[in-house]
Each structure stands twice: as C-alpha cells, then as structure tokens.
From TrEMBL, chain A:
Pfam families to which the protein is assigned, alphabetical: Thioredoxin
This protein's name: Thioredoxin family protein
Domain of life: Bacteria
Originating organism: Actinacidiphila epipremni
PROSITE patterns xrefs: THIOREDOXIN_2 (PS51352)
Domain Thioredoxin: 11-141
UniProt lineage: Bacteria, Bacillati, Actinomycetota, Actinomycetes, Kitasatosporales
Automatic annotation (TrEMBL), chain B:
Domain of life: Bacteria
UniProt-annotated stretches for the region Disordered: 1-22
The UniProt record lists the keyword Membrane: yes
TM regions (residue ranges): 27-47, 94-113, 119-147
Biased composition (Pro residues): 1-15
A Pfam family assignment: DUF4395
Domain DUF4395: 20-149
Listed name of the protein: DUF4395 domain-containing protein
Keyword terms, alphabetized: Membrane, Transmembrane, Transmembrane helix
Coiled-coil segments on the chain, per record: none
Annotated organism of origin: Actinacidiphila epipremni
C-alpha cells in the first residue's frame, strides 16, 4: 500500500463527515409529517400514561442520549404552559415494542399526537420550541 | 417489559449519574481528531494504541480519568469560565467505549501489518471524533438505540 493511502482516506473521511454533519444539522429535529407510520395511533394503554385532552407530546429517550435531557425540559415546559397538552417520556430500551411500531431509529424522537392519539407530526433529534408550538397548533386544530 | 435474553450491551449505570461539563468531551473529541489524523498520516500503530489507552481510561474509569479530560480541566476550563449546564456522563462515556473498539481493531491491524484494517478502523473513528468536535454530534450515542433494536429479537410478533 502506498504511503498516500492513509492521508487520502483521512481527507475523504473528513469530507464525508462534513457533508453528513451539515446535512444533519439542517434536518435534525425538524418536525415533519407522519410519513411511513401514517396510520399510527397510540392509546393510553400503549403509553402507560393518559393522553392529553387536546394533544400529547411523546419523547423516546435512552440513557446514552446527550440531547434528551434538554428536549425533556423543553417539552415538559411546553406541556405545562399549554392547557390540555400532556408530556410522556418513554425509555426506548424498555419499550422496544413501541420503538418498532413507531419506527423510532434514534433518540430523542418526538411524536406529536392529537387528542385521539393519532400521530400528527414527528421529529428525530431535538426540535425547537417554535416547531413544537406549530406542531401543537396543527394537532389541536378543530 | 423485562427481556429474558441476555443483554449484549451493558446496561446503563444506576441512578444519580455523574454530571460533567459538556465542553470537556467536545475538547477531547477535538484532540482525538488531531491524533487520528496523525495516525492516518503516519500509519503508526503505536500512536493508535496510545489513543486506545486514552479511550479505555475514559470508558472504564469515567471521563475524570481520561488524559484529555485532565488537560481540559486544568488548562482549558480555567480560561473558559463555568459551563452553562452540566450533562450526564454516560453518553460520552459510551462513545469512548465505541471509540475504544475501533482503536483496538485499528491498532491490531497496523501492528500486525494489515494496513488496510488499520486505515479503515482509524477512518471510522476519525469520522465519529470529527462529528463530535465540529458539530457536537455523538455518533456512538445515536447508534445505540439502533444497536439495541438490532441485537434484541422481536418478541410477540407474528
């Protein structure tokens, strides 16, 4: 192997990581439509907690998730200030059944459910407060 | 929901985890990036083995025992002022364990004359360290749930 293979691979790895990082930063935490899990509907029994009267914010977390605590604080705060909105946090490792049903690949994953438990919006990564507010508006629209 | 199958991935430590300055692991990732670049430039298995020892110290003993963490606490942090918030030590510690795996494989590759293995494993570790340093993105942490999903068989499904 020539002496240039290592440096060339290093340059390639940095370029690929930069492209991935930039793309990820743009898409991370964006709340989008229900996608493949279009018909997903979670019940009080599924969640192990009551649904909110108007909407429910569900967060999947693991212990090995650096941004989960920040997202938890944000969602708990939003739920505390918005009437009829509940926040439910789920330990993904304990609930692999739900993880598979909801097609959760990474943490945090945030699901926004309407009052019947139907999935309205979802985000992989930490969402912004404004995005959560907009998704809640959609979920609680009459 | 208890799972009877043995867990291939170590369970997280019990309650009251150590909380650390999040800038520490980020600084460590920047140093690691530079070291891995040097490894790829020189093809030095010994240097990669040294980096493996650094990963091992952070993964086994906790980030307090990582040499880069020591440098951060004594030389960098005094110039930065206090952190805005602390974070759970477990995610970056898990990432150190993932880095250790790659570094051990890479060092074994270089030192046994299997150059391509050394290069491939170092490049993978470089991607993870660089993503952490430049974007604050913890690849090992992100893949954790994916690994658990894959490792544990589906139960109660037709």
């Amino acid at each position: 192997m020539s002496g240039w293979t290592g440096p060339a691979v290093a340059a390639l790895a940095l370029a690929a990581a930069t492209a991935f990082g930039l793309l990820r930063a743009r898409r991370d935490g964006r709340l989008r439509g229900a996608g493949r899990g279009g018909a997903l509907r979670l019940t009080t029994a599924d969640l192990g907690a009551a649904l909110g009267e108007r909407a429910t914010l569900v967060q999947f977390s693991t212990s090995f998730c650096a941004v989960c605590p920040g997202t938890r604080r944000l969602l708990a705060d939003v739920a505390a200030t918005a009437p009829g909105v509940r926040f439910v946090e789920i330990d993904a490792e304990d609930r692999l059944d739900l993880v598979r049903r909801a097609d959760v690949m990474r943490t945090p994953t945030v699901l926004v459910l309407d009052r019947t438990g139907r999935l309205v919006r979802r985000a992989a990564g930490a969402p912004t407060r404004a995005d959560v507010a907009a998704a809640l508006e959609l979920a609680t629209a009459p | 929901m208890p799972d009877p199958t043995p867990d291939p991935i170590p369970a997280p430590a019990p309650a009251a985890p150590t909380r650390i300055d999040p800038r520490g692991p980020r600084f460590g990732a920047a140093v690691t990036t530079v070291v891995l670049l040097a490894v790829l430039a020189t093809g030095s298995g010994v240097l990669l083995a040294a980096q493996a020892a650094v990963f091992a110290a952070g993964a086994v003993g906790g980030l307090r025992f990582s040499p880069y963490g020591w440098v951060f606490r004594h030389l960098v942090r005094p110039r930065l002022g206090p952190p805005q918030e602390l974070e759970d030590e477990r995610p970056p510690r898990f990432a150190q364990a993932v880095g250790l795996g790659f570094a051990v494989i890479g060092a074994a590759g270089y030192l046994s004359g299997t150059g391509w293995l050394g290069i491939a494993a170092s490049a993978a570790a470089l991607v993870a360290a660089f993503l952490n340093a430049a974007f604050g993105y913890c690849l090992g942490c992100e893949l954790y749930l994916f690994a658990v999903r894959t490792a544990r068989p589906r139960a109660g499904r037709p």
